[in-house]
């Protein structure tokens, strides 16, 4: 394959990855607390070819190197998470809470393949799940245990008459005519959110950051004064109009590169016939 065909094929592979990101965003447009992603491209190895014989005629007002830039395509340089605040929706449900600050998350416990890990979510639709001991655990819509400020699952002893949440993120239990705060939901702030990775199920995780010269405490910090909106949920921050525009542009770019390969094959066929 010629350089032109190689460049088109390489770019098409990366454009397909961007289409996957856009599709993931659109599919989660109605997911509570979902944060969209953005893909950014960068050029692969390239060289400048000086094909101008008259530099004076081509240098007036020019700010780029003389000649043409010939490369081997483009690739996705990095995919960033968009942590901007989504709009709040009133639900009037006692166990629905929404974070009102960007880059803040609830801590939950997730067990996969026998390993338990702390992960982070913006989804504040919480539920009570019965345990084997007759108590109730506070969990997310996916069944992951919500953690308290000590890093332990929030377990509510049986025999209660009501459970509510307040704006300080505290779990208020009513037993008879007496109400007591029996737990506080852990809320953390992503000091350097660029390190967080999406893991599916509307969750984020913190990878090993020691190679980057950081500790976990320098990436994630505990929020002291928690302030949440009770009876409300944060909607997804996906802007469908922007996603549709990105989709059309990416599809057109994919078609142009596919057409490049097709034209390259036709040219090769004509050359072979001339031989």
Structural topology:
Blueprint (H helix, E strand, L loop, with lengths): L2 H25 L9 E7 L2 E4 L5 H4 L9 E4 L2 E8 L6 E3 L6 E3 L4 E9 L2 E7 L5 E4 L5 E4 L5 E2 L8 E2 L5 E4 L4 E6 L2 E7 L2 E4 L6 E4 L2 E3 L14 E3 L5 E3 L1 E3 L5 H35 L1
Antiparallel strand pairs: 1-4, 2-3, 5-21, 6-20, 7-8, 7-11, 7-16, 9-10, 10-12, 13-14, 14-15, 16-19, 17-18
Helix pairs in contact: 1-3
Architecture overview:
This protein has 275 residues and is of the alpha+beta class. It has helices spanning 3-27, 55-58, 240-274; strands at residues 37-43, 46-49, 68-71, 74-81, 88-90, 97-99, 104-112, 115-121, 127-130, 136-139, 145-146, 155-156, 162-165, 170-175, 178-184, 187-190, 197-200, 203-205, 220-222, 228-230, 232-234. Strands 7, 8, 11, 16 and 19 form a five-stranded antiparallel β-sheet that branches. The chain has a three-stranded antiparallel β-sheet with strand order 9-10-12, with no helix packed on it. A three-stranded antiparallel β-sheet has the order 13-14-15, with no helix packed on it. A hairpin with a 2-residue loop joins strand 14 (170-175) and strand 15. Helix 1 runs antiparallel to helix 3 (240-274). It is found in: Bacterial flagellum basal body.
The domain tally reads 2
- Which regions are unreliable across 5 or more consecutive residues at pLDDT < 50? none
Task: Bin the helical content.
Answer: 10-25%
% residues in beta strands: 25-35%
What composes the largest sheet? 5 strands, antiparallel
What is the SS-derived class?
A: alpha+beta
The succession of helices and strands, N to C, reads HEEHEEEEEEEEEEEEEEEEEEEH
Radius of gyration: 26 Å
Average pLDDT score: 86
- What does the overall shape look like? elongated
